[in-house]
């Protein structure tokens, strides 16, 4: 190779070093959706957002980078602080689809800040802050969970439904097996609390879960009213 060839090769190597995206350091995401009725009847207090009672729909809890072994990274970049100016175009959709229920009542920025700093900063090699929230919103819309469940006769009516029926309805609806997590209401009934859907490292496509969360659900669980 002549001098010119070497020069071009070195230039390409130099570019490769600095331009290519770093390898992501997680294996997949959980999109975690929570049922507000199950959050509110177990917490000693749940507080509606300042904009009012959220719709009776699943709300986003977070988009969590995870490892195939079941553990997960957290708080990966303390230098990347939540910056609400980067998501101003998404705020009305976040209020609707990612409502906060913690007390005292607030608009939601504290919840989104927590999720960005704890989880979002661990997938920054793939998504910046705007993409992180935008992708989570798109995934929630794509999953359309409440519609899938109600189409299968599974309604938030305080009735009891089988874990298999819930799991299969979602599997048929989105094409992949979800993780189902339960908590207990004040009467100690096990109820549907959160649904985990696995997402590829680009944060856009549903995938089969490499590992399912331990859900603590019995064979029959309640779908609480909200
Ligand atoms: O389960 C309790 C809290 O641990 C965090 N969690 C759990 C499972 C998992 O795969 N990844 C993960 O981060 C969640 O913390 P949060 O985002 O709510 O602070 C979960 O609520």
TrEMBL record:
Active-site residue list: 61, 115, 119
Pfam family, one: Ribonuclease_T2
CDD domains cross-referenced by the UniProt entry: RNase_T2_euk (cd01061)
Keywords: Disulfide bond, Endonuclease, Hydrolase, Lyase, Nuclease, Signal
UniProt-recorded Gene Ontology molecular function terms: hydrolase activity; ribonuclease T2 activity; RNA binding
InterPro entries reported in the protein's UniProt record: Ribonuclease_T2_eukaryotic, RNase_T2-like, RNase_T2-like_sf, RNase_T2_His_AS_1, RNase_T2_His_AS_2
GO biological process: one example: RNA catabolic process
Official protein name in the record: Ribonuclease T2 family protein
Family stated for the protein in its record: Belongs to the RNase T2 family.
Signal peptide: 1-22
């Amino acid at each position: 190779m002549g001098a010119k060839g070497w020069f071009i090769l070195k230039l390409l190597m130099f570019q490769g070093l600095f331009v290519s995206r770093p390898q992501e350091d997680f294996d997949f995401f959980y999109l975690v959706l929570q049922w507000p009725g199950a959050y509110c009847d177990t917490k000693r207090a749940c507080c509606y957002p300042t904009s009012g009672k959220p719709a009776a729909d699943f709300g986003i809890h977070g988009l969590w980078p995870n490892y195939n072994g079941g553990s997960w990274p957290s708080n990966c970049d303390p230098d990347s602080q939540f910056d609400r100016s980067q998501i101003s175009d998404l705020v009305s959709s976040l209020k609707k689809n990612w409502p906060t229920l913690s007390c005292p009542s607030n608009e939601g920025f504290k919840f989104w800040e927590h999720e960005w700093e704890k989880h979002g900063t661990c997938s920054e090699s793939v998504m910046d802050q705007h993409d992180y929230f935008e992708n989570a919103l798109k995934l929630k819309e794509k999953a359309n969970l409440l519609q899938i469940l109600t189409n299968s006769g599974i309604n938030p009516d305080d009735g009891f439904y089988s874990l298999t029926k819930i799991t299969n309805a979602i599997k048929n609806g989105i094409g992949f097996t979800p993780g189902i997590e339960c908590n207990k209401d004040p009467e100690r009934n096990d109820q549907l609390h959160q649904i985990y859907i696995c997402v590829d490292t680009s944060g856009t496509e549903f995938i089969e879960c490499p590992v399912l969360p331990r859900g603590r659900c019995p064979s029959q669980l309640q779908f609480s009213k909200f």
